[in-house]
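Exercise: predict the fold of this chain.
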Amino acid sequence: MGKPTTKDLAKAAGVSLATVDRVLNARAGVRQATVERVQKAIKEIDFVRDMAAANLARGKGYRLVFLLPDHDDEFIDLIQTALAEVNRSMAHERTVVSTIRAPSNDPHKIAMALESLDQNDIDGVAIMAPETPHVRDAIARLHARGIAVVAFVSNHPTAENAYFIGVDNAAAGRTVAQLMARFTGEGRGRILVLTESMQARDSQERRLGFDSIMAKYASRLTVMPSMETYGDPARAAHIIDIALSSQTALAGVYLMHHDIESSMRAIQAYGVAKQTVIIGHELTPHTRACLMDGCMDAVITQDVGHLVRSSIRVLRAKISRLGTVASQERIRIEIILRENMPELNT
C-alpha cells in the first residue's frame, strides 16, 4: 500500500480537499474544530506531507535561524558544520538556515537578538541560551508574532510553545554519577563539579540527576558545589588550581558544560588527569584526544547532526501546523569510552 495522499486525508477527516489544503498551509477561514479533526486524521492514517512538493507548489520555503552563543568552541563548531551540511542537503526543499550570535551570559542581549527577528523575514528559530525571564518573555513575543520556536540543547520549560530538542539532561547527569561511582572503586575524596553557568537549564538538570545517584551509591565521596567558569579560561584555571592544591584528595572531576577544553588543559597542567576520574560532555576533537590519551575516562554525548536535523523538522512541522514523530525526534544519550569511539571501529 502506498503512502496516504491528501485525498485519503480529506476522506479520513470528512472534509473537502480545499479544506485540507487550507489546514496544511495554515490559511485562515477554517474553524478550529475542523483543524483539529484534520490533525487527528493525519495521525490516524500516518499522513506524511511531501514538503518539497508543497513548498514548490506554494512558491515558499522555510527561513530558519539558530541563535547560538557568540563565543567559539569545538561544540559550537560541530553545530556550525551540521548547519552547513543541512543547507546543502535541504536546498531542494526550499529550507534556508542562518545563524545569529549572542553572549550566553547576557540575557538582555539574547532578548534583544530575538526581538530583532522580523516575522516577514523569519519563519522559525532554534534557541541555544540559558533560561531566564528575559528569554522566556522574548520567546512569548516571538510566538505572538507567528515565529515558531524550539529550545535547542538547553531546555526552556517555563516558556510556552518552545519544544525542546536535546537529551534528557537529568538522565545524562545520573549516567555520569553511575560511571563516577563505579570508576572510583572504593576510594574516598572530593568530586569537583565545573560548568559554564548554572543559569543554563541543562547544567541544573545534570547536577540534580548527578546528585541523586551519588547520594544513593557513592556517599563515600564528597560532591563539591558547582563552580562556574563563565566561559573564562583564566577563571577555570584558578578554580582548578584551588581545588587541586587542597590537602583533601580529589577523586573525580565532572565537567558539566560542553566547552571543556580550557578546563582540561588546566587539569593536565597539574599532571593528575590520569590519576583522577574525569567525565565530561560532548565528543569534540579535544575530548577525543583526551580519551585516547587516557586523560578522560568517559564522555557523555549526543549526535549533533541529529540535534540540528530534528530542530529543523520540528520547526517546519510547527510552521506548517503538522504533527511530528516523537520517536524520530528523541535524542539519545551516548556513552563514549576510548574503546568504542567510531574511529576505532572502522
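Check your answer against the key: Residues 167 and 330 are 8 Å apart (CA to CA).
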